[in-house]
Design brief:
Chain lengths: 284, 399
């Protein structure tokens, strides 16, 4: 048996990360790696059978997450991680399904799938890393880019109002909604654990620095400067009405757990329907 | 592998094409339908839901066709045989996941109930307009398998074939039917369970730690495992190596993508299926598939009655195309009369294979032409009188 003393390359998360794929592709100062190690910590803490957990990602920087996590993992099409994961969950309801993707992937090209999965209350944990920009393609404006912020496709400042992701998830029917920044690793881990134990559609938004594009284009400094910004400007307000969670450019970021409620999941309703129909058939 | 007996409706029943499609799918072990409503495919979904009640089958209506096929791919990776049903506009939206299905080598079946297009066309009018879309509608290089049933019984039979092909070759299989055929009613014989042969899923059975999701067997097909079986595998739509890890170089593109083409092309002769009637001595050979078959057959028989040596080649698979057989026949025959419910699609393949040997005459028909063989007969007569070799496709013009 291998122990700590017999090996000098032991990594405490090597049962959860694909060590043979490291180093990863993310830039220095990026927050996605923090979100991934936080997921690993949460999976460890949640005491779930890892054979029974799978992870699905879309496309983009955060879309690469599935490739680094040692679970049954799928790197799918742009915006379609949620419907792919829906198929998995409905076909085998015993699996725990995590969708890990970015704001552009989940809320722009995948926006329709996002609201419908929340409406159906498909039992899955959606972790959405929000860096306010399309980073993989070089810094284009995203559905989350704050008004007036610069991007390569908004060179005079963004003129589109951004989405408030927790509000969308809440309105569409998510049973668990939280937001943290890449600085709040322990609170984020707690939220992931809670979401993993929750039945239904959970959404956790992770505000993340994008040092290479968002911060550089908007002259906000490096990743560490963004972390300092979160430290000063993040405000924890559990239970805050999700209507009040807009993130204007470089202003306060309200974090916390906003929604934690019960609603029957799609699978529960489907099984109830089936049992009922079978009963009627037997009577008939 | 045999289908579970309790799911089979063994015996002869009067079924619509839609019902036959569902019975075929269920007999093939299909237990997941992800769909989005569209005419004229909706009857298939409705009947699947009816049948799903008593089976361990899952039915989900997604928010669009993009997500419908995405869900089918996800479901297939749990080990469930999965399918979707749609029509042309929906098939267009599915092309994104046709590509992902090909890249992840995911077994699944797509039933395309063709209607006229482009755009929205006439939602209830049948057509054979998705011939090339079904093959290469998604970007990049790949091959798929496409089946075209001609009768209600064949819809049942071909659904089983489709699932078997998709499991064997690990590729999405398209069953191209149309709005006419799915509404046709006819007697369908459903065999006993012991008489149905199902291709089992090609599972990996080696040591768990040595599993490589894209290590190919000798016949170029990699082995599958189910989600949740403990393998912790990774798959990606990016160009990938044996481990399923993305590798962005030309060598890996060759390693990954060339076999996607070769695993079908190299085995085309094993996949291709067709039926022939009176081709031995035929000067004129009518080539048809799907709903065009019955009128083509009528015309062939009438032409024989008139003393024109006419044969019939009915294509059961349209992809891969029956290239070798069409080429062989083109060396013996004077002309092919290609019949399609479109303005000329598969005829391009026919003409390609007959070039320099036999003339290729194209006959188009619409819904009315499914039961009317006059144009085809006239084209046969015209072809039999033509003694010179013509280049290209000769479009038959009705008088």
């Amino acid at each position: 048996m291998e122990t700590l003393t017999t090996r000098n390359t032991y990594h405490p998360m090597e049962n959860l990360l694909r060590m043979d794929r490291l180093p990863h592709i993310w830039c220095p100062g990026c927050g996605i790696g923090i979100a991934v190690t936080t997921l690993a910590a949460a999976l460890d803490k949640a005491q779930v059978d890892l054979n029974n957990v799978c992870i699905v990602s879309g496309i983009g920087c955060t879309g690469r997450v599935a490739g680094y996590v040692k679970l049954d993992s799928f790197h799918t099409t742009h915006g379609r991680a949620i419907p792919f994961a829906t198929g998995i969950k409905l076909a085998n309801p015993n699996l725990k399904v995590i969708v890990f993707s970015g704001d552009g992937d989940l809320l722009a090209i995948g926006g329709n799938h996002f609201i419908h999965a929340a409406r159906r209350n498909i039992d899955m944990v959606v972790i959405c890393v929000n860096n306010f920009i399309y980073a993989m393609t070089g810094g284009q404006v995203a559905p989350t880019t704050p008004l007036t912020a610069y991007a390569t496709t908004s060179p005079y400042g963004c003129v589109e109002p951004p989405f408030n992701i927790p509000y969308i998830a809440d309105s569409a029917g998510a049973v668990y909604v939280a937001r943290w920044t890449a600085l709040h690793v322990r609170r984020l881990a707690t939220s992931i654990v809670e979401a993993l134990h929750k039945t239904g559609f959970s959404l956790i938004e992770v505000i993340s620095p994008c040092a290479q594009y968002y911060s550089r284009i908007n002259r906000l400094g490096d990743g560490i400067d963004m972390m300092r910004f979160y430290h000063t400007n993040a405000e924890i307000r559990h239970g805050e009405n999700t209507k009040n969670l807009d993130i204007p450019f470089q202003s306060n970021i309200i974090c916390g757990k906003f929604v934690d409620r019960e609603r029957p999941s799609y699978t529960e309703r489907y099984n109830k329907w089936r049992t009922q129909i079978k009963g009627e058939d037997n009577e008939g | 592998m045999k289908p579970p007996k309790d799911s089979l409706k063994t015996g002869t029943h009067q079924l619509s094409g839609s019902q036959a499609c569902v019975e075929g799918a269920i007999s093939a072990g299909c237990r997941f339908l992800g769909m989005y409503p569209i005419e004229p495919a909706i009857e298939i979904s409705n009947y699947f839901l009816e049948r799903a009640k008593t089976l361990d089958a899952v039915y989900v209506q997604m928010e669009d066709e993009i997500s419908a096929l995405a869900a089918v791919l996800g479901a297939s990776w749990t080990g469930r045989r999965s399918m979707t049903v749609t029509s042309g506009p929906g098939l267009s939206l599915m092309m994104e996941h046709m590509g992902l299905g090909v890249m992840l080598e995911t077994p699944c079946v797509i039933v395309d109930v063709q209607r006229v297009g482009p755009g929205h066309g006439i939602p209830t009018a049948p057509a054979q307009g998705d011939i090339f879309q079904s093959r290469w509608g998604s970007h990049g290089d790949y091959e798929i398998i496409g089946l075209a049933p001609s009768t209600v019984q064949e819809i049942f039979d071909f659904m089983i074939k489709a699932f078997n092909f998709s499991e064997h070759y690990r590729v999405p299989v398209v069953v191209l039917t149309d709005g006419y055929l799915v509404n046709l009613k006819s007697d369908v014989t459903i065999p006993r369970a012991e008489d149905i042969k199902l291709e089992p899923r090609r599972y990996y059975d080696g040591p768990q730690e040595k599993y490589l999701p894209f290590k190919r067997d000798e016949d170029l097909i990699p082995r599958l495992v189910d989600i949740g079986a403990g393998y912790k595998f990774h798959v990606t739509g990016l160009t990938h190596d044996e481990r399923g890890y993305p590798i962005m170089n030309e060598e890996c593109q060759e390693f990954n993508v060339h076999p996607l083409v070769r695993k079908i092309r190299n085995y085309a002769e094993k996949i291709v299926r067709f039926q022939e009637l009176a081709t031995e001595d035929a000067e004129i050979i009518v080539i048809a598939y799907g709903s065009s078959f019955s009128a083509a057959k009528q015309a062939q028989q009438k032409a024989r009655e008139q003393g024109i040596k006419t044969g019939l080649l009915k294509l059961d698979t349209i992809w891969p195309f029956a290239e070798n057989r069409v080429r062989e026949l083109s060396r013996k025959a004077k002309a092919f009369v290609a019949v399609e419910m479109n303005y000329g699609q598969l005829v391009y393949e026919i003409q390609r294979c007959s070039q320099g040997n036999a003339n290729t005459i194209f006959v188009t028909h619409g819904e009315k032409g499914v039961e009317n063989s006059d144009d085809i007969l006239n084209a046969i007569i015209q072809a039999s009188r033509e003694n010179s070799k013509k280049e290209g496709i000769i479009e038959y013009a009705p008088k």
